[in-house]
Design brief:
The protein has 74 residues and is of the alpha+beta class. The chain contains one helix and two strands; from the N terminus they run αββ. The radius of gyration is 17 Å and the shape is elongated.
Length: 74
């Protein structure tokens, strides 16, 4: 019983830390984009083990979303 309680406590701490880390990553990413005059968002999914980055460059008249992060250097 003590083992299950300890495991549950560790799991809840992990989930809280994951949520806070996701929030911090989103804020910092959006802040960085704003400084460069770019709009976009980042989506973290721990369940799917994915990180989705979508960015819209201001000079892109076609309104296409950039999904290749290599174009964001600098």
């Amino acid at each position: 019983m003590a083992c299950k309680k300890a495991l549950d406590l560790r799991w809840s701490k992990f989930q809280r830390n994951a949520t806070l880390l996701k929030r911090q990553l989103t804020w910092q990413f959006n802040s960085h984009l704003r400084k460069k005059g770019i709009s976009g968002h980042i989506k973290v999914s721990y369940e799917e083990k994915t990180l989705l980055v979508e960015v819209k460059m201001p000079q892109d008249a076609s309104n296409n979303i950039v999904r290749d992060t290599r174009g964001l250097s600098g």
